Amino acid sequence: MTAPQVTIVIPTFNRSVMLRRCIESALAQTQACEVIVVDHGSSDDTPAVAASFGDRIRYLRRDVDHGVHFCWLDGVINARGKFVHLNFDDDFLQPTFVEKCMALMSDDVALCFTVAEIRDESTGHKLQECFTGLGQTGVYSASRFMTLQIKGLVSPGAILLRRQDILDALFVGRVPFAQHEYRGVGPDWLMSAMATLNYPKVGFVAEPLAVFSAHEGSITVDAQRDKAKKKALKAAYQSARRYYVIARVIKALRLDLLAGVGLFILRVGARIAYGFHSLFNRKRTRETP
What we know:
Layout: E1 6-12, H1 16-27, E2 34-40, H2 46-51, E3 58-62, H3 68-78, E4 83-86, E5 92-93, H4 97-102, E6 109-120, E7 126-130, E8 138-141, H5 142-151, E9 159-162, H6 163-169, H7 187-195, E10 201-214, H8 219-224, H9 227-252, H10 255-287
């Protein structure tokens, strides 16, 4: 069987009602995709919903939930496509999302993203559009994309990335040097931000091809209604941004070369220490009656 170009990974947890719509939108893409549903610990009828799609999807279930990032990673590791889109279970895609993103992907393009529509789940009304800052559909410098990322967040739910770049950048634990955490946010920002360090360009589709649902169970909606949660959410993203800046400085100044010198010094010091330790132990052994 020929491997698919694109895999849509759908992490899910106790949202079987919304999950069906999400899966259907993935299967309805005008460019055929592999669809993987990853269920970590759902206690509702999610398994039955997944089973109703038969072999049109791959369903991965873990009875124990080890956190959202392990759920994402589980799907990405099992993906056969070179490119991956993470689609959260309460959101869905318009049919041409993958086709129009792939049309802009090339060897020097880190990722492609689209405008997203935020829709009220209870009424179906469009509340707003986001990620509109680049202008017309086309290819832009990666730095233009990062101006949007620094100001806010271009959600993975509107982004197509290379599978390998996700694996290289997805933190399943705390982001290095992070002082704040909030319900798994931060690594979602870093997945795309870190990819821009390796490619000069990004693709942008100026159409709302990703639809995000605003509802009571949404982490973002919940945080916006509570000052303490909103502050914690912002602090978690700031920790991720700080790590990105550190990585960018290391790359720009070639501090990896300096680290190589430091590592050489540490290795020499370790060998000297080991030599003294061995000599001391041999001397003690000779002196022992």
